[in-house]
Amino acid sequence: MDTATASLGSPCTGLRKLPKDGREVIGRIPHTLMPEHYLSVASEAATLSFLALRFQLRVPTAFAYSASASPNPVETPYMIMEKMPGVDFNDCSESETGHGSVHREVVRMQALLHTASLGSIGSIFFKTDIREDWQTPLYAPDENADDASRLFCIGPCMDPVFSRLREESDRAVAVDRGPWPTTS
């Protein structure tokens, strides 16, 4: 990115390169100011996979990811994911029919997501990506086991609000990130 920024004369936050088959992909790296930024990559990849498996939602496919900085050629956590086709929501005018249909689709998805009885409050992870002592079951005890419950668990909460708790001196603030059994 430094090379691209120097060449273009302004800050560069992304590069676009298309594979020969014309499929577009996005390469993402986490913001390193977030404590445990490597976990955010693992949680995002797992959440996308969970949404596709459990709810058959059309979400970007995570083709590859690495939650650690080494050993990988990028030397930082990364995810390579599918770029979804369509028009960017910010590029639509409010008068276009797209706005209303997008809002209806978001509400439909939220209602669908509320049908899952998750076991704890936290973020979704593949069981293979986080330490066993950080894991709680994906579903509440009364929920039936399925393929998702064998692959995924609930782990620490990766909400960005926790990254805002860092002091300007760059010392991490000790915060319980969960997972928590309840909100109380």
Automatic annotation (TrEMBL):
Subcellular location: Mitochondrion
Organism from which the protein derives: Calocera viscosa (strain TUFC12733)
Pfam families with a match to the protein in the record: APH
Protein name: Altered inheritance of mitochondria protein 9, mitochondrial
Annotated keywords: Mitochondrion, Transit peptide
InterPro entries (alphabetical): Aminoglycoside_PTrfase (IPR002575), Kinase-like_dom_sf (IPR011009), Mito_inheritance_9 (IPR051035)
GO terms for cellular component: mitochondrion
Residues of the Aminoglycoside phosphotransferase domain: 21-123
Coiled-coil intervals, chain numbering: none
Membership in a protein family: Belongs to the AIM9 family.
